[in-house]
Write a structure and sequence with these properties.
By secondary structure, this protein is α/β, with parallel strands linked by helices. It has one domain (5-167): Leucine Aminopeptidase, subunit E, domain 1 (3-Layer(aba) Sandwich). 37% of the residues lie in helices and 18% in strands. It contains 5 helices and 6 strands, in the order ββααββαβαβα. The protein has helices at 33-42, 44-51, 89-106, 126-141, 156-167; strands spanning 5-9, 19-24, 62-65, 73-78, 111-114, 148-153. Strands 1-6-5-2-4-3 form a 6-stranded mixed sheet, sandwiched between helices. Strand 3 and strand 4 (73-78) form a beta hairpin. The longest helix is centred in the middle third of the chain and has 18 residues, at 89-106. It starts with a strand and ends with a helix. Bound molecules: ligand AR6. Ligand AR6 is lined by residues 11-13, 23-25, 31-35, 37, 79, 115-122, 152, 154, 158.
């Protein structure tokens, strides 16, 4: 059975899944947006664990515990800043999804939720980012590795974009 891919309008910090993904920065020391929300909800122990990780390259990923979150783990990945599309942004964003999915698989994570990586302050064009997210997660969902992959959308506009992408058979 392929893993169901699902878009939900929700605050990702409320989800009781094996792992939520954090749209981090390369310092892994917190920030605004979803990163700030995850650190606030997880509590200071998350920052303490992150301090020991020595940062993370754009497009790569590192895993921590979830502390006070309902999610057991957080997988942190710094997405690319949008510089106009000719700076390898698409490959880097695809790499965020691939490396987080690979790390999830290594850690026997079956249920995982994603925010729209790079779609806030990093300025990635929303439709292009959503197309990459759906393409990469759909590939993983074909395997037996995951039971559920959720796209946690902060607003109705983002939810509509994911639903449109998910309705297309091949993105
Ligand atoms: N749940 C789900 N989605 C959310 C939440 C939430 N609680 N909060 C925001 N979003 P952004 P980026 C959505 O800016 O563009 C941070 O300072 C938001 O509406 O959080 O990858 C980091 O430290 C948007 O659609 O991440 C980095 O410095 C999406 O999450 C930088 O921002 C991503 O927006 C990363 O920027």
């Amino acid at each position: 059975m392929p893993a169901p891919l699902q878009a939900l309008q929700t605050n990702i910090v409320t989800l009781k899944v094996d792992a939520i993904v954090n749209a981090a920065n390369t310092s892994l020391l917190g920030g605004g947006g979803v990163d700030g929300a995850i650190h606030r909800a997880a509590g200071p122990e998350l920052l303490a664990e992150c301090r020991a990780l020595n940062g993370c390259k754009t497009g790569q990923a590192k895993i921590t515990r979830g502390y006070k979150l309902p999610a057991r783990h957080v997988i942190h990945t710094p997405g690319p800043v949008w510089h106009g599309g000719h700076a390898g942004e698409a490959e880097l964003l695809a790499s965020c999804y691939r490396t987080t999915l690979a790390l999830a698989k290594e850690n026997s994570i079956k249920t995982i939720a994603y925010p729209a990586i790079s779609c806030g302050v990093y300025g990635y064009p929303l439709e292009q980012a959503v197309a990459i997210a759906v393409r990469e997660c759909r590939a993983a969902a074909q395997s037996e590795d995951f039971e559920k992959i959720i796209f946690a959308c902060f607003d109705a506009n983002m939810l509509a974009l994911y639903q449109a992408a998910l309705a297309k058979p091949n993105h």
